Amino acid sequence: MKLALRVGISMGVLALLLILLPWSEVRDAVNRLSLPVWLGVLAGFLIGHRLGVEKWRLVVNAGRAGLKHVDAIRCYAAGLFANLCLPSIVGGDVLRAALAGRATRRMEAAVLGGLGDRLSDILALGLLLSVGAVLARSALPDWAATTVTIVLSLGLGGTAVLAVLLSRRPLASWPRRFRRPIGRSLVALRRLLRSPRIAVAALSISLVIQCSFVLLNAWIGRSIGIDLPLAVWFLAWPLAKIAGLLPVSLGGLGVRDATLGAILAPLGIPMATGVVASLIWQSVLIAGGLVAGGVWWLLGQRAGAGGERRATRQPTPADVRRGEARS
């Protein structure tokens, strides 16, 4: 029922956008995008996630998992591909954690590492949003700047209160369904705090990745006629992404697009153009996920072939001597 509800919300929002938006503006915005720009954005997206592989591996190995480079790429690619098929990014995180736990035989380290990785991403988004809100004030109308200030203050205050509740409230007092995710998140956070170098490195890489994604979206916007200061993108894109992360839609589809269009509309950008910019980014996400699926399949084939060769390898004289010594 939850999955059906999320699909219904995404399809409903998309259908409403298609009905209400002027088709001439949608068509003009799509026609302005050139193939080289789209391919360049896709390449930047893949490079960003290649950095994400190293960040995730760094946090997972903080739990002494010993995850190798090739295995990290394979597991991460599987999770990125799974984001296309599952209702939220949580499903992709679960898959990559399961594969990493199988590869390292340290399931708990893989799960906690994935949570630490996601926490660093959320913190990086919050920092970008805060910086963007400060830098973009001069480019916003007075009422919009005031609204952003109020919403950001309420968000930061709510986050602080929630953090205190999570850290001070006994785990047994939470409803049973929330105990496991809250407990694991707290353990992951404490593990990062015990390794400040890893925590700083993970946050720094997250900031680089999220900043690069903002720049890629600004590139898309400029290519289809959205002429706004870069500071506005550092406010608008994180807000739209956070809206897409809310567990009410299918991977943010529809909700993220409508949010970006609504944020850019008061700045003189037609709603249709803002929605098209977000949908172009969605097409990059889909293409990147398909590329990741191909990488997962190829590396899985190599891993399977390597295991078969090891299984059928003829014993050498050294192997025989070691076996005799053990016997």
Walk me through what this model shows.
- It is a single chain.
- The chain has 327 residues and is mainly alpha-helical.
- 83% of the residues lie in helices and 0% in strands.
- Helix 3 (35-61) packs across helix 6 and helix 4 (69-85) packs across helix 12.
- It is globular, with a radius of gyration of 23 Å.
- Residues 323-327 have low confidence and may be disordered.
Which features characterize this protein?
327 residues, mainly alpha, 83% helix
Short summary:
The protein is an all-alpha fold and 327 residues long. It contains 13 helices and no strands.
Using only C-alpha atoms, the radius of gyration works out to 23 Å
Instruction: Tell the overall outline.
Output: globular
Overall average residue pLDDT: 84
N- to C-terminal distance: 59 Å
Q: Helix count?
A: 13
Order of helices and strands: HHHHHHHHHHHHH
- The number of distinct β-strands equals 0
Question: Which helices and strands, and how do they pair?
Answer:
Blueprint: H1 2-20, H2 23-32, H3 35-61, H4 69-85, H5 89-104, H6 107-135, H7 142-168, H8 176-194, H9 196-223, H10 230-245, H11 255-264, H12 271-312, H13 317-326
